[in-house]
Known about the structure:
single chain, binds zinc ion, binds 5'-O-[(R)-(carboxyoxy)(hydroxy)phosphoryl]adenosine, 5-stranded mixed β-sheet, 2 domains, globular, Nucleotidyltransferase, domain 5, alpha/beta
Amino acid sequence: MLILGIETSCDETAAAVVEDGRVIRSSVVSSQVDLHAQYGGVVPEVASRAHVDLVVPVVADALVEAGVELRDVDAVAACHGPGLAGALLVGVSAAKALALVAGVPYVGVNHLEGHLYAGWLEQPDLPTPMAVLLVSGGHTMVVAVDGPGDYRVLGETVDDAAGEAFDKVARFLGLGYPGGPVIDRLARDGDPAAIPFPRAMPGELAASFSGLKTAVVQYVRANPDFRVADVAASFQEAVVDQLLEKLALGADAVGAASLVLGGGVAANSRLRSRVQELADATGRAAFLPPLALCTDNAAMIAATAHHRLAADGPTSLGAGIDPSLRLV
Ligand code: KG4
Ligand code: ZN
């Protein structure tokens, strides 16, 4: 079974062909990062227009790379939420049109479920229950996964997402967009214990990052001679400490057998090594997906669609998008 998946929820235009929900035949991602960098963040209308320009060539590339034609695919899937409304509409409209032309089912996929599926794509035998830390520019949550379609959100951020905190702090420090990779790099030359930034909501599964962002701003204003590497390292350590505490609490609460990372912030080198340490210390398996599967991609959408189609059947062509769609 071949599924063509499309992902346009934010600033990546992506298409992929996945076989039997497991084998990635192709995965093409066209990032708009350069387009949005000049504004210091994603501009929704700019993103939608770029998706309109890119979706057809990106889908064509994905089919060519997979060595298939549209008539060979058994279903066409698209992410239908959560995300930016105009951006979602482009991928969903394209997927419905292609499904109609090919005479195959359309499947709408939840972006967050897609991120959870990215782990299974590489490692189908991960022991359950899993505690998944989903951390991106739009989301920060700990999810217990008991199997495909079987999710419990254990805790999530009450304000900013972790990636958003990286981006906002980087913008404040004049480091450009996106902020995560540059802070990660600068932090390597800094002292993570130099500045005692706050770790919010200790002992709780919920997280919060807006106070930390404010603490960084206040520190920098009060210390004009600040060392940027120390600020980066201390800020990053505060984020990672907080995320690790939530993951550990969630994993203990559900007796997790494995720890899994997902979302763009899962690219963070400090977070990856700390999650591995936590797994080793608690006798659990850790799965840190390759970066291409952590950040937004369409392979995770096509893989999720395989399961959704089997469980729920096709999505109606009359179904729309939901920018605020929740995982469960
Ligand atoms: O999952 P993603 O590609 O898009 C969303 O769905 O948001 O995540 C993008 C986020 C951005 O906030 C970016 O700054 C962050 O992931 N990010 C990182 C790193 N690489 C990307 N954050 C921390 N460290 C990194 N190395
Ligand atoms: Zn995402």
